Amino acid sequence: MKNSYLLCIAHRGAMGHEPENTLASVRKALALGALCIEVDTYYVDKRLVIFHDDRLERTTNGTGYIYEQSFDYLRKLDAGNGQQIPTLEEVSAMINAQTCLNIELKGENTAEPVAELLADMIDNGWDKASFLVSSFRHHELLKIKKLVPDINIGALIHGLPVDNAKFAKDLDAFSVHPSLECIDQRFIDDAHARCLRVYVYGVNHVEDIARMQKIGADGVFTNFPERVLKNYSQGDFTTKWCDR
Length: 244
Ligand code: G3P
Ligand code: MG
Description:
By secondary structure, this protein is an alpha/beta fold. It has one domain (7-39, 95-239): TIM Barrel (Alpha-Beta Barrel). The protein is 31% helix and 18% strand. The chain has helices spanning 23-32, 71-76, 88-95, 111-123, 138-147, 166-170, 185-193, 206-214, 225-229, and strands spanning 7-11, 36-44, 47-50, 100-105, 131-135, 152-156, 175-177, 197-200, 219-222. Helix 1 runs parallel beside helix 3 and helix 4 runs parallel beside helix 5. The two termini are 22 Å apart.
């Protein structure tokens, strides 16, 4: 029986099963039933491409910094199992408003082109609440919030700040995204007291998934969506912590 809630956010698609940040990975996350899918995006050669690293070597047969390449070069690369590096438009078309889409802004100057695309999609019937834009680059989040008022933003962090989640509240974030390595109960309680959702990244083992739910996390980013979906109920990715 699934009686406790923990949002499953499929990390880079379902990267435990298919090459990360590819259409195959997004397709797998959808097939597994994830209600929220995270992808990373860079703005390269005037295109929004879905990619995680700043260099190409780890996940493709290419070389060099991603932001120094042409779009044509990137599209010729093998991103794993013959998959191409997709664009954000292609990922959005595949998701087709069926799930929440978490767009993580990776490089500089991603906020403006992402804002433009979001405005377009919202004009075309996408629910604004089905987007969550996140980044470790908090300046980019401020920019996107200005460009797309009321868009939900998620503040990513590597460590735990001394004043806990205050910085995220100051950003007017919807959620704060700490890593599994750092998260503790005090931080989660502080975030909730500030009406912020807490989504923890790097949560792949079943015992960690269970521990995150126990200490009050609202969701986890996972490479294996089925491990969360099997045991926890889903559904609410738009309601603020205080309005739940
Ligand atoms: O957004 C959660 C997670 O993706 C953040 O870290 O490095 O996997 O993009 P990273
Ligand atoms: Mg990411």
